[in-house]
Design a protein that fits this description.
It is a multi-pass membrane protein. The chain is mostly helical. It is 71% helix and 3% strand. Strands 1-2 form a two-stranded antiparallel sheet.
Length: 175
Amino acid sequence: MPLEIFDTVTRLVAATIIGMAYGLNRDLHGKATGIRTLGLVALASAVVTIGTIRYLGQHTPVESHPDAMSRVMQGLIQGILTGIGFIGAGVIIREVPGHRVRGLTTAATVWLTASMGIVCGLGQWVLVVTAVVVSGLLLVFGGPLERWLHARLGTGPRNEDLGPRPRDGERDAEY
């Protein structure tokens, strides 16, 4: 397999696997946005990023116009993240009677997934690995840490990942 094809396949597969891992996390928390959706978000972001890089490399003398390449890449990233922001906004729900806002973590995960697709598409592997480790730790341990802090301090809003605040005299079921 030629090196360029191997590189492209690696970037696309890495983005898809990372998106699917984030989707699994959301599936395990009972959210509608899951493995397929986030796998596709990451894959699509990587495809557009790689496609743009390859097209510019083949059809324009990018080396002699670095400012033009920079503007194109800025527009690409801005376009992906803005569009994905609308998908993320679609998973945020405000329940009027209780004034609860649900879906914020899922919306942030959708945006993160698109970002990871872009970074995989750019082939920035140190950034990919670092972001996967940090975001994975946050997704796995962030909710329990937040619950622990709120229980100890007796403060703070509850979101969909934390569940309803226990009534006086009750304890969270997970403690």
